[in-house]
Design goal:
Elements (H helix, E strand, L loop, with lengths): L2 H11 L15 H22 L2 H8 L4 H7 L2 H31 L6 H20 L7 H9 L5 H27 L6 H11 L4 H4 L1 H8 L7 H28 L2
Helix pairs in contact: 1-2, 2-3, 2-5, 2-7, 4-5, 5-6, 5-8, 6-8, 6-12, 8-9
C-alpha cells in the first residue's frame, strides 16, 4: 500500500473535521490524513504521553498549529487514529459480525450454524491480522491501546464501535450452545478465552517468534498454520460445549 492510497483510506475512514474543508488550509483532507498516519506511528513508538504534538507535526511535515486546527488537541488526534483503525477492522469483520448477529438472533438456528458463525468471526479476525495495512507503528499503537495505555477517548471508540459488538455476539453464541442464560459468567469467560485464541501470535509476537525460532519476515505459510490451528481449536471447543450440554440433560 503506497502513502497516497493509505492517505485516501484515512480520508474515507476517519471522521471529518469540524471546520470547513474548502479553506485551503494545509491542503485540507490530504493533510489531515497525513497527520493521522504520522500520529499512529508516533503514538505507537512513544505512547500517548511520550508523543508530543510537535513530534507528530514534524513526522507529518506540517506546522504544529495544524494539529489544533484539525483535531483541537492531542487527544483529538488520538481519537481520530482510533476511528481510522476501527474503520479498517470493521471493513474486514463487519459483515461477519452482522451475519453472526443475525444467526444468534434466530431462535431456530442450529448448533452448526452458530458454530460456523463464530468460526467465521475467527477467520476474519485472523485474515485482518495477516493482511494488516502497512502503517508504521500501528501494531505498537494497538498493543498500547489493548494494554490500557491510551486515553479514554480512544478506548471509547474501540469499545463502542467494535469490541462491545464482537464480545456480545461471541458470548451469546457460546451461552446459546451451552444452553445457559446469556448472563452466565462462566460461559462468558469461556467465550472470551475462545475468541482470543491465537492472539499471542500478535500481542506477544516477538516472544513467540523467538521461542519458535522464527525470523521477523512475513511468512504466508506460517500465517496459514496459525489460522488453521485457531479455527480447529475454536470448532473443537464449541462442539465440546454442545456435547456437555447434551450430556447434562
Amino acid at each position: 500500500m503506497t502513502g497516497t492510497s493509505r492517505a485516501g483510506r484515512v480520508q474515507s475512514a476517519a471522521a471529518r473535521p469540524r471546520h470547513a474543508v474548502d479553506t485551503g488550509y494545509q491542503r485540507g483532507e490530504e493533510t489531515r490524513a497525513r497527520i493521522i498516519l504520522a500520529a499512529i506511528k508516533c503514538f505507537g513508538e512513544f505512547g500517548f504521553a511520550g508523543a508530543s504534538t510537535r513530534d507528530i507535526a514534524n513526522e507529518a511535515g506540517v506546522n504544529a498549529p495544524a494539529l489544533q486546527y484539525y483535531f483541537d488537541n492531542k487527544e483529538g488526534v488520538y481519537k481520530a487514529c482510533a476511528e481510522y483503525i476501527v474503520s479498517l477492522v470493521l471493513g474486514q469483520m463487519g459483515e461477519a459480525i452482522e451475519s453472526a448477529e443475525r444467526v444468534v438472533g434466530d431462535p431456530e438456528a442450529t448448533d452448526k450454524q452458530l458454530i460456523d458463525a463464530f468460526c467465521e468471526l475467527q477467520n476474519r479476525k485472523a485474515g485482518f491480522m495477516e493482511e494488516a495495512p502497512e502503517i508504521d507503528g500501528w501494531h505498537l499503537f494497538m498493543a498500547r491501546e489493548q494494554a490500557g495505555l491510551g486515553p479514554e477517548a480512544g478506548f471509547k471508540v474501540f469499545h463502542e464501535r467494535f469490541s462491545t459488538r464482537l464480545a456480545s455476539v461471541g458470548s451469546r453464541i457460546v451461552t446459546r450452545l451451552a444452553g445457559v442464560s446469556p448472563d452466565d459468567e462462566a460461559m462468558r469467560v469461556r467465550a472470551v478465552c475462545i475468541s482470543t485464541l491465537g492472539m499471542a501470535f500478535r500481542v506477544m509476537r516477538r516472544s513467540v517468534d523467538c521461542s519458535m525460532g522464527w525470523g521477523t519476515e512475513p511468512n504466508p505459510e506460517r500465517n496459514r498454520m496459525v489460522r488453521e490451528a485457531v479455527l480447529e481449536q475454536t470448532r473443537y471447543l464449541l462442539e465440546r460445549t454442545v456435547r456437555q450440554r447434551k450430556a447434562a440433560r
